[in-house]
Amino acid sequence: MRHSAKGNAYLFMAAIVWGFSLAAQKEGLKYIDPLFFTAIRCLLGGLVMIPVVCMRMRAIRRENEAMEAGDKDEGGAVNTGKPEIAAVIKCALCCGLLIGTTILLQQIGLPYTSVGKAGFITALYIFITPILGLFMGKKTTRNLWTGVIIGLAGLYLLCLFGGIEAITFGDLMMFIAAFLCAFHIHAIDHFVKKVDPALLTCSQFIVAGLLGLIPAFLMADITWDALRSALFPVVYAGVIACAVGYTFQTIGQKLTNPNLACLIMAMETVFTLFSGWIFFGEVLAVHEYIGCGLMFAAIVVSQLPDDVLSVGTVKTVPEAKENIDM
Q1: Residue 149 pLDDT > 80, yes or no?
Q2: Whether the Cβ atoms of residue 201 and residue 48 lie closer than 8 Å to each other
Q3: CA 12 from centroid of its chain's CA atoms
Q4: 3-state secondary structure of 272
Q5: Interhelix angle for 85-109 vs 169-191, to 10°?
Q6: Which helix (H) or strand (E) holds 157?
Q7: How many degrees, rounded to 5, is the angle at CA 68 between CA 198 and CA 92?
Q8: Which of 142, 41, 120, 169 is nearest to 295 (CA)?
Q9: pLDDT digits (tens, 9 = 90+) for 38-63
Q10: Axis crossing angle, helix 5-19 with helix 245-255, rounded to the nearest 10
């Protein structure tokens, strides 16, 4: 049964973990440079994924060994389960550069905007991703365009209510990060067909960390005292948000319907708003809260199948049961 309470619980925990990640990132900026924080966070996230990758590779080899005899009997080629080094390197460089730059832009922009606004603006990737997909020949749903309209109204209340001058530098950084996040998702979609998801995640974070570490040491003023002060935010953002959050998502999506999974993970934006209030005392204006509400509604609507909001469309009981049991 794919639609299970256990799967939903894992996805809900992933949403909580990611929702508090921006608060950890902003706290870390009190002590260390954005570039160094990004590099250490990504490198740590990749390193703690190595045991997961090793276990995953062993599991794949065992599966292939069990199938090997049958493949040989049929005269087919045997899949060794070994990833192609060239594909892994290309994937790690491309995805690592994208995810590292996305996180860095968030780090640079966080001091100039609230954690809550940052979370909702970054969530625009949910709309940008399928729109970019149109240029790649991918189809979109009617509900996506409904969500885009609602989301634009929410974005106006969140960032443009006071005119164009109301847009802060931080808002702009988050908006660019949302675009890069959308490109990153399409890159993942391309490479995941060739590289195991766990290996992909691990390698991209390690590359992102290494790419940022060298310029960080050259440009940033780094002291051990500052690093010790930022230890908890770095560990949370690297280990909990990257490794644990990814693991929760992977387990949850295996047990839950994809559409429901997206809706549960959309709760990340709500927890981001909540974390900003808890740790930094951030209180938004009334129109900004309304904007956040509209953007959350837009996220939900955009992830729904078209027939859910279609007038006069009623699912039969067997169809509904099929969706629950897939």
Answers
A1: yes
A2: no
A3: 14
A4: helix
A5: 170
A6: none
A7: 25
A8: 120
A9: 999 999 999 999 988 898 888 888 88
A10: 150
